[in-house]
Structures are given as C-alpha cells and as structure tokens.
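Supplementary Methods. Inverse-folding protocol.

Structures were first reduced to a discrete structure-token string of length 328. This string, shown here, constituted the complete conditioning input.
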C-alpha cells in the first residue's frame, strides 16, 4: 500500500482506506461477522485509515471498529469520525459548544479512544461555514485533548472552499468519482496550496461504478439506494452521486471498455481517483473480506494512460455533467 501525506498534519496514510458507513446501516442487510472479518482483512493487508460517523447505525459502526482494534492490539490505524447529524433538524443553531462536546464524548466512548484522531463536521448546513464560532468550538476541543484535529465533510464545492479559509481545518471529505469531477478544479488546487487533506468518499457512486447493476436491480428497503433515490432522507447526491439511475447505467456501459485487463470496473474507478495528486485517501466501503481486499488491490494497478483519463472526462461532459455539475 502506497502512502500519501495527510495534508500538513505530519501524518501519512495509505491511499486506500475503509469507509465504514455500510457496516453501520443504510446499505441493506449486513452481518457483523462479515464486517469484522472485512476490517481484519483490510488491516492485515496494510490498510491504516478508517472513516466512520456517530450516526452510522447510531454508533454501531464506531463500536464495531473499537471491537476490532481491541482484538488486534498494537499500533492502531488512523480513525476519523464525524458529528452533527444527530440533530433532529440541520440548523446552525444546533452546532453549539455543548452539543459538539456531547457528540465528541459519545464517539470517544464508542471508539474507546481518549483523543479522536480526526473529528469532521458531518455535512452541516452551508451557512455553518460562515459562522466562525463553530470552528472556535472545535479549537477548544483540540485544546482540551478531546480531538487531535478537525475537518469537514461537505456536499458542495462551495462549502469546501469556504471551509479551508479557516486555517486549522485539517481535511475536507467530499464526493469525488468519475461521475463527480467538479472538485478536481479550483478546490483541489486550493487544497494542495493550503496543505489540506482530501478524503474522497462515495468513490463508486453507491456501487454504480462497480458495473454490477442493471435496470432491474432491486435494493432492500433498508438500503438508501432504495429509500433515498430522490433525496427523501438526506442529500440526494449521496445516492448514486445524484446521477439518475438510468443515466448512470448508460454511462457505465461507455466506461466499461476502458477497464484495464485483469482489473474490475470498481478497481478501475478507484485507480482513476488515485490519479489525482490532491487526494490523500479514498474510502470505499466493504461488507466482506473479499470486497475489502479487492478495493486495496486497486492501488496496485498501473497509472492510467492520458487517453483513458481524457475519455472519462469526455463521457462526463457529454452524459453526466448536466445532472450534477452546478448542483454540487
């Protein structure tokens, strides 16, 4: 596993991490035994970055991670978590010092950590980025030793650019994949210039870029790919990256001939993300060991040729951009 600098933090992390949303909730039926085995397999293979959140299974994801790390002992990986989505309504007024302290303390208990490696605001309202007092609350948490550093998880490029104006924002987590190219413009340039780590989430567009879905594919009731198709539960951009299902399927068929020999389409999609220098780590999810190891193997693929990168950009411009570019 190759490592990349995690912004200006002084840490390096393996370029493929473990996104732990799926082992918590909202992705259909998940067996804890498979989730635990997936985490162990990934860590055995050298993975050293895990991303979770306090609302993934109402803390279940965090507690599973703590269990695995306790079983393993020794040096632990870098664990990032998120807070803010426990609010009944997403309002700036809810991001108080008291609420942030309570959320952080709960995650510290769930993860069994005295100090959280990274606490990220979990897609707060856009207006939150224009309230310096919220970031001052995070500074106080660093001073108290509750968190080592803080970052943000955003929906929109506008939010990412505003967030990194705050000098101590260590990282930005953002949706970036072959269906969401906009972050690779001004935001990536500024993140590199300012030494801000970039965590690329939803790298497979909710599995669409695995190439395994068809028009008649059905998802379980508890899977957000069923219940959030139109943004009923949270931002629609989190489901299939906001691309209409049929549009995504058609684009995948155009991308399929670009997949390198011996690789899966999912691995190709992950390798495409790693072609971008600004990305510190990409966090695909995994429900079982096989998936986890296949994700990690993507890092070993050769660099993609310029003509392949250009063709991905062309397909995006032609088929995907009208649906997502100006919205996020």
């Amino acid at each position: 596993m190759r490592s990349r600098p995690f912004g200006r933090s002084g840490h390096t992390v393996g370029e493929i991490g473990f996104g732990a949303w799926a082992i918590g909730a909202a992705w259909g039926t998940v067996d804890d035994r498979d989730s635990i085995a997936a985490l162990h397999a990934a860590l055995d293979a050298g993975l050293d970055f895990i991303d979770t959140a306090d609302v993934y299974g109402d803390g279940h994801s965090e507690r599973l991670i703590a269990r695995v790390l306790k079983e393993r002992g020794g040096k632990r990986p870098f664990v990032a978590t998120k807070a803010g989505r426990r609010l009944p309504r997403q309002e700036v007024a809810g991001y108080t010092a008291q609420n942030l302290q309570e959320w952080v303390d709960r995650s510290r208990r769930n993860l069994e950590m005295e100090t959280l490696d990274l606490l990220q605001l979990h897609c707060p309202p856009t207006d939150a980025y224009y309230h310096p007092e919220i970031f001052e609350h995070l500074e106080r948490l660093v001073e108290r030793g509750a968190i080592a550093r803080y970052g943000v998880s955003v929906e929109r490029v506008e939010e990412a650019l505003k967030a990194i104006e705050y000098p101590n924002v260590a990282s930005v987590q953002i949706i970036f994949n072959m269906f969401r190219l906009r972050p690779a413009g001004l935001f990536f340039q500024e993140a590199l210039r300012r030494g801000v780590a970039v965590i690329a989430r939803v790298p497979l567009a909710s599995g669409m870029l695995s190439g395994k879905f068809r028009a008649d594919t059905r998802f379980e009731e508890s899977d957000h790919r069923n219940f959030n198709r139109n943004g009923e539960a949270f931002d629609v951009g989190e489901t299939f990256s906001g691309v209409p299902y049929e549009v995504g399927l058609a684009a995948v068929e155009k991308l399929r001939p670009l997949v390198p020999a011996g690789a899966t389409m999912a691995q190709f999609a992950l390798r495409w993300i790693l072609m971008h220098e600004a990305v510190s780590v990409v966090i695909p999810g995994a429900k079982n060991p096989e998936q986890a190891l296949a994700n990690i193997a993507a890092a070993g693929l050769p660099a993609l040729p310029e003509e392949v990168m250009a063709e991905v950009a062309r397909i995006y411009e032609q088929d995907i951009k009208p649906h997502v570019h100006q919205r996020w």
